[in-house]
Amino acid sequence: MAYRFEDTTMSEKERVDRLDEAIIEEILGLSDSEAAGLVGKEDVAASRKDLLRAKAMVGKLRLARAKTDVALHVASAATARSGMRADGQRVLSLRKSDPVLDKKMTLAARSGTANAEADAASLDQDLAELDAWEAEDRDQS
Amino acid sequence: MRSEDSEETGPGAIRYTAAEIRAALDGLSDDDHRRLTMVARHFAPRTNMSEDDLRQEAFLRVLSSRTCKVGIGIVEFLAGTIRSIASETPRSRKRARENAGLELVYVPEYGVGEVQEPEDQNTPSPEAQALARTMYTKEIERAGQLVSGDYELELLVEALADGQRGKELEDVLGTDTKGLAAARKRWIRKLQVSFPDGVPL
User: Is B184 left (phi over 0), alpha (psi -120 to 50) or beta?
Assistant: First the structure.
């Protein structure tokens, strides 16, 4: 009985998959004029807006992650007293501009729970990525 | 931040960089956006998401968690992403979002209080299997409703679902290559024009 249940499900999945493939193939194969005849300018504007929103959300997430990495890294550096000298000004600047981050970093430093080695490379990478995203956004605005 | 959840997996596959993907997204033409809108419009009812939300979710995943093999067009990749999102159960959709780092959540220690241990994410639960079966059954119904009353399109959808292509399809419909192309275009047009908000169930 269990076998038949699975078999039926698979068969229906295959049928849906085939229809999905055919629909996508057909839509992607439409000429520009055919596409323009089916979807209006308002939808194009809405799609472009969705893309901008998605980029902004990803940028914010990266910023949040970078800030978290900063907090963890600085906390670790404060307790281990080792190694880190890069980006000190940037970290300071971030702390000044964000009271919440500043508080978190202070608390994290007191608890001394972070891992400096693991986070140092990640921090540099995140800040570099963030710079690239911000530059890109500036270019587009 | 990026992970390998593309269907085009392969250890040696060369993939676009994040910067290349962003450039490709910036280069989408109005007609590319139209095609994406059509794909999102078709799949949105399956997800309980609006067309806008589904399209935005696809952009998010392409920017954050999915990787694209070199040689795949960006529109094709986005269309595949939309389809992939639509094929997920609500639970796996949530999990995919979390795995992509799109939700920042605080998770207390597992096993303490009411916090459950993480599930085995590779084996579908009986509940997930039942949900999938319901979803596929509804989709077959939806495809039928779309063309209901139009004999040629009913035949086309049935034959496509059965896996028939090309000459076989022409034979089923009793037409030639040109006639088949016209029927397929009429099918897509019906979906987009007759049901601009998706085909209701």
Answer: alpha
Residues B21, B62 contacting (CB under 8 angstroms): yes
Among candidates B92, B95, B162, B94, which has minimal Cα distance to B131? B92
Q: Are A33 and A56 in a shared domain?
A: no
Same domain assignment for residues A91 and A120: yes
Q: Indicate the number of domains in chain A.
A: 2
pTM above 0.90, yes or no: no
| Cα-based distances in Å from A23 to A65, B21, B82, B83 | 38, 24, 13, 11
Instruction: Give the range among A100-104, A107-111, B63-67 with minimum mean pLDDT.
Output: A107-111
Same domain for A73 and A14, yes or no, is no
From the list A15, A22, A48, the residue facing B140 with the nearest CB is: A15
Query: Is B141 in the A-facing interface, judged by CB distances under 8 Å?
Result: no
This model of the complex carries an ipTM of 0.76
Q: Are A105 and A48 in a shared domain? A: yes
Torsion of CA B74, B35, A18, B145, to 10 degrees: 160
Cα angle: B73, vertex B76, B79; to 5 degrees: 150
Residues 175-194 of B with CB under 8 A from A: 184-185, 187-189, 191-193
User: By CB neighbour count within 10 A (0-12 exposed, 13-18 middle, 19+ buried), where does B172 fall?
Assistant: middle
Q: Do residues A46 and A104 share a domain?
A: yes
3-state class (DSSP) for residue A38: helix
| Domain carrying residue A75 | 40-140
Based on the fold, state whether residues A20 and A73 are members of the same structural domain.
Answer: no
Please state the domain extents for chain B.
13-105, 123-201
Lowest average pLDDT, out of A134-138, B64-68, B148-152, B195-199, goes to B195-199
The minimum CA-CA distance between B44 and chain A, rounded to whole Å, is 13
- Chain B nearest-CA residue for A133: B19
Together in a domain, A32 and A44: no
Average pLDDT score over residue span A82-105? 61
